[in-house]
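Researcher: Quick sanity check before group meeting.
Model: Go ahead. Protein one:
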Amino acid sequence: MSARGAIENVLNRYSIAYDENDMAEMADTFTEDAVLSMRIADGDLIGPFEGKAGVMKLMTDSLAGQTDQRRHVTTNIVVRKETDDSAVVSSYLTLISVKDGAATVLSTARYEDELRREDDGAWRFTKRHIQLDLPY
């Protein structure tokens, strides 16, 4: 698989893992020293959440409060910079909620990611910033 294909797989594995509540799979998309932050609209910076454990606590806590089925749709993936073992990637998120027989767009967002290819050959997030356009 090409580096670009492997990088795109990480973005999509993250989305599907969140939607399917597969925290082991999601954890495997982050490096041990990963950092995640987010901002909702023009609000204050949330985070950073540092280390895989900190990022995963945020994800687990977020899922615990959900009563709907989420679908994270990642599109417009642009690899802005790539070396043999690192990449900078931008993409869009459309966040959909499925509940009571209806699908509703909750928000859109932009992901700004940095990834690293680790010793096992797998690409993982080292930094992920989520810029949500709307609160939900």
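Researcher: Fine. The other one?
Model: Protein two, sequence then structure:
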Amino acid sequence: MNLYDSKILLVDDNRELAAMIQNILRRSGYIHVDCAESCVEGLRKFCLEEPQLVILDIMLPDGDGFSLFRKMREKAETPILFLSAKDEDNDRLFGLGLGADDYITKPFLSQELILRVGAVLKRAYFMPGKTGPGSAEEEPVLKLGGHEISFSNASVVYGKKTLSLTAKELQILKKLNENRGKIVTFDALCMAVWGDAYYGYENTLMVHIRHLREKIEDDPSSPKWLLTARGLGYRLKKED
């Protein structure tokens, strides 16, 4: 499956804007672009169509995009890009802190939208080591004490518990594991997760690290595996 075969779901109640975005994406080569105008319709199409990417407006007639985001993530770890007229830093950080893959504000340039959509899809499915949508290729299991992390299933098994990793948590953990025992700088981690446009995501990275520790550490407040290199970055400790 190539990049342009990816199914994209746009959830926005502004019909004129939705039609414009749909046209921009289709002219760029994305042929599978569907639209929904509400939270209810968006969730229904999300479950029915299983898209590879969701472009999600925050202000919707029957709710808000943040709540819909949570419901979608309960179903699948599909990459989600927030689209909003809200440009406040708090809203941006809140959306990214939830685990969103990107956040773009209205108005925007057509080329900016195309670049961001392409970047999110490439990071999620087409980067080296990624298997692409629909692929069943397995990746090794990472063991951190009593925790077993499956990269292919984006899950953590601990005793009888199974926890899901978000797309961002998975990308962070993969980058750390590729350099296990070595310090990975803040910039390198942000680049691995958000690509070239990573500037300004350092605080968001800290949020993801905190959530990740809650899933892979026995005591998140006193981590044994995901260690902080003060002023530099983070390090995934090797087995003793």
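Researcher: One line on it for the slide.
Model: Residues 84 and 105 are 5 Å apart (CA to CA).
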